[in-house]
Amino acid sequence: MTISSLRMTRDKVTVDNKKVINNDRAVDCNQLVPIKYKWAWHYYLDGCANHWMPTEVSMQRDIEQWKDPLGFTEDERHVIKRTFGFFATAETLVGNNIVLAIYKFVDNPECRQYLLRQAFEEAIHAHAFQYIVQSLSLNEIEMFNMYREVKTIFDKDEFSMIYTDGVLNPAFDTRSTLGLQTFLRNLIAYYGVTEGIFFYSGFVIMLSFGRQNRMPGSAEQIQYILRDESIHMNFGIELINTIVDENPAVWSSEFQQSIVSSVKKAVELECAYTRECLPRGVLGLNADLLGEYVQHIADRRLEKLRLPTQYGSRNPFPWMSEVIDLKKEKNFFETRVTEYQTGGALEW
Ligand SMILES: [Fe+2]
Ligand SMILES: [Fe+2]
Fold it and tell me: Would the pTM of this model clear 0.90, i.e. be above it?
């Protein structure tokens, strides 16, 4: 009886025979070196250098502000709860998709090294929202079931989750062009859309509160999450583009068009979500401005995927670009946020 695919051999792994996907046991996926995809290794190192834990961030001022009956308007409380409610489960959906769907098929070891790091970061992000919900004494059941009760959140989650289901089908494989295209749809839905578009209205909303020293602990955690997520997205896009380069037949013009339509559909879902979150404006934010921002970032994602841009919208929140580059010291929060290297190096 065969109990393992492992066999003894003097054949050595070389960078030339490594592929990002479909190594199909012809190349040993247990040997991290020699590293072919240096970008994957560098994203792994960057992720480790950015390590943080939610419980290192004080929630004291958020708790005081949230408990103050005059601390927030009803509209502000609504948009804050919607933001936490969306993220509370979205992080777990992303983590599940990495572990259950992506990891199985991306069998290159340096990419897997990053996927393991990313999966842990998604656990930290899920922890962050559990910690925020608990600290603020929000109704846990309401927050964690929100994605099944609020249609605009359900629609966003369903957009990506159908691609997890597609890959989990036991008959699914990535050897045919059609199979590989289905797998790319999964990667684009998660890295390009969920992490690349759907997260960003929430980032803008919570960072807008943070810029006014409101909910500073939550905003600080969002800042760390945003930094992690921008690496996740960049890794994902590099992974997608490499799969395409190594398997050019998948990138037919029909397939490209269907990806563009799917990104446009995602922009509509996100705009519907922001309208439900912000029926009226708060903090100088409103659904129209967020819609413009969503279109702006959707164009940036399309560009990185080497697809034509669709909107030409301006960025109404230029400060977001600065926040994303956290290598610069930021001091618009009272808490000090500097380049985060290790847990021990944090100062508050
Ligand atoms: Fe995350
Ligand atoms: Fe992520």
Answer: yes
Q: Which residues contact 140 (CB under 8 A, 6 or more apart)?
A: 133, 134
Residues near ion ligand 1 (Cβ under 5 Å): 91, 122, 125
| Distance in Å, CA 17 to ligand 1 centroid | 32
SS3 330: strand
Architecture of the domain delimited by 58-333: Orthogonal Bundle (1.10)
Q: At what angle do helices 216-246 and 38-49 cross, to 10 degrees?
A: 170
Residue by residue, DSSP assigns 27-65 as S-TT---S-S-HHHHHHHHHHHHT---GGGS--HHHHHH
Q: Which residues are catalytic?
A: 131
- Quickly count: other Cβ atoms within 10 Å of residue 106's Cβ: 25
What is the length of the chain? 348
Give distance in angstroms: CA of 11 to centre of ligand 2: 37
User: In angstroms, what is the span from residue 124 Cα to ligand 2's centroid?
Assistant: 10
**Look-up: residue for tokens 């708790």?**
63
The Å distance, Cα 5 to ligand 2 centre, comes to 32
Interhelix angle 200-211/253-277, nearest 10 degrees: 40
Per-residue pLDDT 10s for the chain (348 aa) are 445 667 888 988 899 989 999 997 778 889 999 999 999 999 999 999 999 999 999 999 999 999 999 999 999 999 999 999 999 999 999 999 999 999 999 999 999 999 999 999 999 999 999 999 999 999 999 999 999 999 999 999 999 999 999 899 999 999 999 999 999 999 999 999 999 999 999 999 999 999 999 999 999 999 999 999 999 999 999 999 999 999 999 999 999 999 999 999 999 999 999 999 999 999 989 999 999 999 999 999 999 999 999 999 999 999 998 787 665 344 444 444 445 455 555 454
